Amino acid sequence: MNIKDIKNPQFLKSYNKKQLEDLCSDIRTFIIDNVSHTGGHLASNLGVVELTVALHYVFDSPNDKFIFDVGHQSYTHKILTGRAEKFDTLRQIGGLSGYQKRYESEHDPFEAGHTSTSIAAALGFAYARDMNKDNNEVIAIIGDGALTGGLAFEALNNIANLNSKVIIILNDNNMSISKNVGGLSNFLSSIRVSDSYDFMKKSYKDIMSLTNIGTKIYNTSSKAKEELKKMINTNIFTNLDIDYLGPIDGHNMEDLVRAFTKAKNSKKSIIVHVNTKKGKGYLPAELNCSAWHGVGKFDAESGTLNKSNVTSISEIVSNTVYEFMEKDKDFVTITPAMINGSKLEKIFEKFPDRSIDTGIAESFATTLACAISLNKKRVFLPIYSSFLQRAYDNINHDIARMNAHVVIGIDRAGLVGEDGDTHHGIFDISFLNSIPNVVICMGKDNEEIRNLLYTGFYKQCNPFCIRYERDNLEFKKTDFKEIKVGTWEYLQKKDNVSNTIISYGTDVTKLYELFKNDDVNIINARYIKPIDKNMLKELIKTNQKIYVYENSIKTNSLGTNILEYFNYKEANNKVRITGIDNSYVTHGKTELLKKQIKLDMNYIKDDIKDYIKKS
Q1: Structure pTM?
Q2: Who contacts 517 (Cβ-Cβ below 8 Å, separation ≥6)?
Q3: Which residues are catalytic?
């Protein structure tokens, strides 16, 4: 069939096993072809094609609720629920999101851009269903490492307490973005290879089938068989009073349908353990599923990823940390499952005894970093800005309150583009700004980023947050020098001018290029907290008219820090703060998003000139 003609999943009910398998093959080809043009999460979606088709075959969405953990594994679900015709708009402004979105379809009851939320959400839907005396099923599809998150365990612990049936599909591909780590991963591996229950069940059946009376006993002893299963197949889930079924081959349609049907008929909460292969059906993704987890455009026929010739800022940071770790034996790097994303591969390969991947567990990683640092070790903790909010309590209560010397790398700061509102790194300044002891900074180029890292690790002892965006710069080894905490610099200072532009990061460099021939001062506010009060006093004395540009939420920003100081000093300076209003920003290419919210440099150039003219 033409994949784009699919309107809803009801047609699956009439399909036989062969038709379902053929459809899976067609969907897999469709996903590869489309993602090769738009970019997106490829390997994770290729791994759940059969799983998702089987779910829609057995259950009845939207009456039955499908809640995908993270949501980046929902491409097949989107296709089966009538959105295939828009797949060429995936992750573009006005197009389909790469995640479940309630505004897109009634088949998307819940949204998530980060892990470990699905079981808690499913339990909430089930509890409300029971209050309403409705009769639908609620299915949480969790995987790609999401079960390591603390929220997932909290939800599992409350299933018996709330006593509302949920079905949990554990998509076990032994991966998150990188390979899974920790005791839970080892536990799932042991279940994967264990055949004790299946062996005992087969032996029991063979023995009982030797006689007619034995056959009758076998056919009527369901209770005994269940007790036998519990005795042999006891695990963390059954100990939490959740029935367990599996492991199931996640690419065998017959086994999947049988298991999901049993789960549907169960009277209590049940977890179905499904083994899948990340990247299934596309050899390049199967061989290196980490690299193919989230991709840009690529050549589908050759399996060649488009590679940039320039260095990402994440790699500049990791290269600099690598230099420190070569010389400093008391240096530790910790990441919550982002070895690849934060470009830490070389560090983990060279220094395995001083590199820790906690899995998707930001809160744990943060408190772990705090404790290690209190034992006179230098700790680097890189976390994506959008995921850092999960560690807010640990930064506030642990690292900052005890003034632990942890350097937090805030990766993907600012707008990140196609992943959209759940991933934009626009809130970290706002929520960190109010925490005592915390230093927040951002470098404008390769040399300044390196020097800020050097300062953070070796020239001060506070919690030190260095932001860096999803962008590219040329990497070059430079000599290190201290940038005193709380000091700014003039990129351009002219006599007898009354207008000053203030910004930070690579944006201040772009503004300098736009205005280097104009009568305006340009300040690089590389420290967002603490601010440079000496320089601000100078601006007050000369009554400068200030224009602050930020690629971040305006609330509790650098701009508000400046305004607060001016107000305290009863200054008369006029200040315009330009940034992101207190709202979420959709998905799409970063440059187009900036145009949409009037933060692109063309608009800002005209806005600054208009602001100056009104002097």
Answers
A1: 0.88
A2: none
A3: 278, 362, 390
